[in-house]
From TrEMBL, chains A, B:
It comes from the Bacteria. InterPro entries: DesT_TetR_C, Homeodomain-like_sf, HTH-type_TetR-like_transc_reg, HTH_TetR, Tet_transcr_reg_TetR-rel_C_sf. It comes from Nocardioides albidus. PROSITE patterns: HTH_TETR_2 (PS50977). This is TetR/AcrR family transcriptional regulator. Keywords: DNA-binding, Transcription, Transcription regulation.
């Protein structure tokens, strides 16, 4: 029965299913420990099919990272309407909830992006640049986030701060509720931008 | 002549010299590319001596990272006297100047700490924890930096922000002078702490 259910998936659905499984496996394993063999076994598919879809281990890693990055980007889409700071809060809430729900996998991806090859790094950088871009599209008048090189520099650094803040908070919440954390993250960006000359 | 000069060094001086050389070589090579053979060749010493001092490649890496971390800690020592924010500024100035002067080596160490084994990670974490500790010793009354778990969480995240800010600024200064950068870094910490509930 299971095999029949599987074979009814379209190639795209099957591919997505394998990527989701790869990301879930990252929750308890590092990128180094994740192998085509392990994935094929867990998914109940042949190694040949894995190679057919991903071309090899490196191609699979990149596809898993890209899939996770696309997922993160989709889940942090701000509402189409609203004040810039409200839209920022909605987007940040999506980010925090995503990281909390996928902590181990997210840590693996950060580590893979830092340690890994240029392709993984590029996916990570492109994703965070796309997330940063939202500040300017959410605030086209530049009232809160004027689009200057200095503000872009600060947003990049604030993203690094937020990543560290959420991951550290997951380990040890330091008396802060999820709402406290969201409030610190949201309020700190305009506060840091205010320190620019 | 050179060989004679070398042999006059004490074992401690020789070891320090090798660690300095290792750190300088990291400016243009990753940890992976740095080998005992290369270092022995550059230093004009035997591989046997390298193994005698460091026990192998991993021991050498750890010694280089620990040496760089100790150096960073020493160079960022705040003045013994002064207002907390002035002492913070002096300490941050030391950090920024160190990273700017040792950019490539510093990037290698960050990458090694993120990707590497637990020993490298522990040296990195211990160093940043020691740097953070200074905020509380510089402000024993807790006027600017009350010693609470939430403030410690924020300082940890702010350190990640500062690291990203300085490294990104090295690549592209975004119209900010060194003084502008120092001012953003120094002023942002109290501003972020103010966002705590």
């Amino acid at each position: 029965m299971t095999a029949n259910t599987r074979t009814r998936l379209s190639p795209d659905e099957r591919r997505t299913q394998l990527l989701d499984l790869g990301f879930r496996l990252l929750a308890t394993r590092s990128l180094d420990e994740l192998s085509i063999d392990l994935l094929a076994e867990e998914a109940g598919v042949s190694r040949g099919l894995m190679y057919h879809y991903f071309g090899g281990k490196q191609g699979f890693f990149e596809a898993v990272v890209q899939h996770a990055a696309d997922d993160l980007y989709a889940r942090t889409a701000p509402p189409a309407e609203g004040e810039p700071l409200e839209r920022l809060l909605a987007s940040i809430t999506g980010y925090v909830d995503y990281v909390v729900a996928n902590q181990a996998g997210y840590r693996s991806l950060v580590k893979g992006a830092t340690a890994g090859n240029d392709s993984l790094r590029a996916i990570y950088d492109t994703t965070f640049a796309a997330l940063a871009e939202r500040f300017f599209t959410a605030d086209p008048g530049g009232d809160v986030f004027p689009d200057t090189p200095a503000v872009r520099l600060v947003i990049h650094a604030w993203q690094a701060m937020v990543e560290d803040l959420v991951l550290t908070w997951c380990d040890s919440p330091a008396g802060l509720s999820r709402e406290d954390l969201l409030s610190v993250i949201t309020a700190s960006l305009p506060a840091i931008i205010d320190t620019l000359p």
